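ugh finaly. both done.
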Amino acid sequence: MTARSMGIDVGADAGADVGADAAADAAGNPPTKVAAGKASISAAELSTDLPFEATSSRRVRRVCIYGAGAVGGYLAARFSTVPGIELSLIARGPHLAAIRAHGLQVRDKDAGDATVHPFAATDHPHALPPQDLVIVTLKSTALASAAEGIASLLAATHSRAIFVTNGIPWWWNHGLPAENQLPGAHPVDPDGALWRHVTPDKAIGCVALSSNRVEAPGVVVHAAFNQWKLGLPRTQIEGMAGKDITGKDITGKDIAGKDMPGERTIRVGHGKAPSAASPIDDIVALWRSAGLNVDASNDLRGEIWRKLLVNIPNHSLGSLTRLGTDDIYRDPQRIALARTLLEEVVAIAAAHGWDLGADAVDRTLHHFQPKGTGARPSMLQDVEAGRPLEVAAVFDAVRALARCQGVTTPALDIVTTLLGGLNEGMTSATRRAPPRE
């Protein structure tokens, strides 16, 4: 069975907006992937409510990458290696057309180069059947407009959507006390579309440390890093500093692979402890089977604060200087500015109850030392491609969290203002530009 036999218009190039990061996004139209030893599979054998653990030669696990650009393309390559996965890609534009024609090419010096031929590639999420797992890798600037499309894939009772995003996620306020919530409407979801259509109960958060880029339509390059943290959008549980959701010691490694402090001061978590059979366990096992270095976190907001230690200095300095990560940290003055930004992020996190550790700034700067990977911050890639910048999720939301706790952030204020102006100028220039021949 092919995507075309399921009624998916794989030849159409409609204008469903699946996000700025999918401006080079996509997939192809080859034969269905099936479990080992089975030559074909009928539509009747595709379950619309298949639990993750119920895989066999007669059933496939449906996984959809929603926005198969840089990060999504890398994940597609990894999941394509798992037997029994029915992998679909949501993408658009030239990238989608290239993948339909030739497959998604992923260049990876670590795992080896691959060409992905997904079960289906489309810019119409409503054309796909319900999915077991939807991995959303859209930029935060495109999430709200994609809310109904994402929700259309979550019809099965067990369906979950993993949001691989930068900055403060749309579900941040879920379960938090009022004093720790992001005040007002979330800049990523100003009208509450994600909250209404997807709902936090269907969401799983993901913090990623993985450097990827779209080199050309249909071609993704994995430059460095393969670290992922998954967690449910709930608060950390007070006193649960010993074990994470998998039973591992959370004094192990942070997203950068560095040792984490053994004690955390968390003021805000009062949720229930995870059950022994968490819905995330099977998902973590699936990701590991795809060769992804993933752990479950019982404190995903803490992981988000640690990722902001990466995003805030790298995105701002990279976008404003057009320098890659290695070159940013070759200059003492840029390092000094990065240190100030890091100190401000640590202070904001502490004001909301997350102690990132006394050595968080030094540890992060050590991690930034030039490594010769050629990594370029994703916001810099957006600048170079003329795409909208994730200023709202990464910078505006963090500043709002600082203000509601009375934390002053002079360095963050300056770079946010400059990035906002850069974003405004880019989008204005895009609107004024004449159409290409």
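ok and the 2nd:
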Amino acid sequence: MLDNAVLAILEKFGERYEIVVDPDNALLYKQGQKKDFLNILAA
């Protein structure tokens, strides 16, 4: 899963975070097709 992982910037409540995500699942989450945020994180 980490082979195609990318770094994403997440800004919440005035804080900035860099997280490693699966790009395919992140796109599905952004499009509203996935509801669980934890499934987009690469681990």
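summary for the 2nd one i guess: The chain has a mean pLDDT of 90.
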